[in-house]
Design goal:
By secondary structure, the chain is α+β, with helices and mostly antiparallel strands. It has 6 helices and 9 strands.
Length: about 190
């Protein structure tokens, strides 16, 4: 494990023999948040030199409507895999992209009943907006996505660590969004 300001990086071989690198944000101050963002920007530069498609966690500044996510997906040729949705009570739920409307409606109905019974919450809304998306994209398209005014951070994860330690093995890099920390420390 490597411990950096605002992040722990775990790495090693998976059962399938792939080299796996996992970024775990550990942000406990505004300084840690700023350090994390600077490191993510440097890692995008490293990824740009490598080229090709890469997985990224995209944290947005405020919850976005599905229509805006679709617009970003088309404009930047993204392959969105799943999104993180914010609900009216501050909770989150992950959904594949695009979301299955029947599933969302069923979940909305079930959670509304449960929250009313348990907590007396009357006006629960499952979807207030998307706070993060996870996608595959060309590095150049991800760089352009970072320039969108409603995008806070496009994070490709610790590609630098993967390059340094993978020893020629096929590599998987896992990264998380940082919306919780953005909200807490901004």
């Amino acid at each position: 494990m490597i411990q950096l300001s605002g992040e722990d990086i775990l790495f090693g071989l998976s059962k399938s023999g792939k080299f796996k690198v996992v970024s775990e944000p550990k942000i406990n101050s505004k300084v840690n948040l700023e350090d994390y963002v600077k490191r993510a920007q440097q890692r995008r530069s490293i990824a740009a030199q490598m080229g090709g498609k890469i997985f990224a966690a995209v944290t947005v500044r405020t919850p976005l409507a599905f229509e805006r996510i679709t617009e970003l997906e088309k404009r930047h040729a993204l392959g969105i895999i799943f999104v993180k949705i914010r609900s009216s009570n501050g909770g989150t739920v992950f959904s594949r992209w695009p979301p299955d409307q029947q599933w969302l409606e069923s979940l909305q109905q079930n959670l509304s009943v449960e929250l009313k019974e348990r907590s007396g919450i009357e006006d629960f809304k499952l979807v207030t907006g998307v706070i993060a998306l996870y996608a595959l994209g060309e590095v150049k398209d991800l760089e352009e996505l970072q320039n969108e005014s409603d995008v806070y951070l496009v994070d490709v994860g610790p590609v630098d660590v993967a390059e340094q330690y993978r020893d020629g093995k096929e590599t998987t890099v896992k990264v998380s969004d940082i919306y919780y920390y953005l909200e807490k420390f901004s």
